[in-house]
Amino acid sequence: MQLLKDKILNEGRYLGNGILKVDSFMNHQIDPVLMRQIGEEIARRFQDQKPTRILTAESSGIAPSLATALVLGVPVVYARKQQPVTMNDGAFRAKSESHTFKKDVELIVSSQYLTKADRILIIDDFLATARTIVALVDLVKESGATLVGIGAVIEKSFEGGREKLVPLGVQVESLARIKSFENDRPEFL
Amino acid sequence: MQLLKDKILNEGRYLGNGILKVDSFMNHQIDPVLMRQIGEEIARRFQDQKPTRILTAESSGIAPSLATALVLGVPVVYARKQQPVTMNDGAFRAKSESHTFKKDVELIVSSQYLTKADRILIIDDFLATARTIVALVDLVKESGATLVGIGAVIEKSFEGGREKLVPLGVQVESLARIKSFENDRPEFL
Q1: ipTM of this complex
Q2: Cα–Cα distance, B15 to B24 (Å, whole number)
């Protein structure tokens, strides 16, 4: 996706240790033109899988997931990292670890929003080590739903996340794949 | 907004103490048809104020803000409740208190995304006691930007939040106003 790559090149900032700051258009401020295109592109790539629900994790996964959901016409469920007082029924839980907050997190989804009949498309902002995505996959497995695909906006292919997802045998897509940083500048695959 | 009121009546659950659970369509699962309409309606009500940015708080404010941003064509900035490692520049901070997590929270926004030249529309999921919204207003004041409006999806008018916002002298809108719960059923204004 050219607009996304241009945004990464022009506005992304490499902070070292594999961390790319994309706060100006995706993870703190959201560019509406870019986000609409992201949703359209993820929807186009997965529409043949006929997902019935999109699963993501708060907070950074919500925008690309909603943009995709508006095109596909299916609901988004976002896993919570803390249990609100309103989440008072049965829930699926999976442990993960946050790259950007440097701590363990638990992802929690109400069991009524992941059912055996569902075909789940997982979406997240980054595919890097895939820790968050693997936790989302665990939630899908626990629910008995069918996982039909995994989509990420930006992939850092040098962190090995995709290799962890290949054994799942589902379609894995990312819209911009960074293979390395050379002089703090991303090189795309 | 009739579709929203119908959703609240059919799917909302009153948990007592003024807490309305809307997890099935807004705060955990997001209904894409409803959320698109919410965005269109908030955009319609505030387009004459010519906002240049939308300000909200993670996580529940992101969906209605993005839906509105897609119509208005302006960026969304969502205040963080924890500082990610990527947020390494100057930031505005304001204290709030979470209804649904029963604890104090700090809202943090990178100072580069709220500027003196901005016309800010604040959007949140609920207008209840207005604690979160008042904290967002504090961030706008700190930045020197101009506040041009405050929009909420659901208002619980019996919690007095609107009264705190009136002195600001800006347009305040909510799409469904609940004046009370009678036998656990919401009564709309």
Answers
A1: 0.96
A2: 14
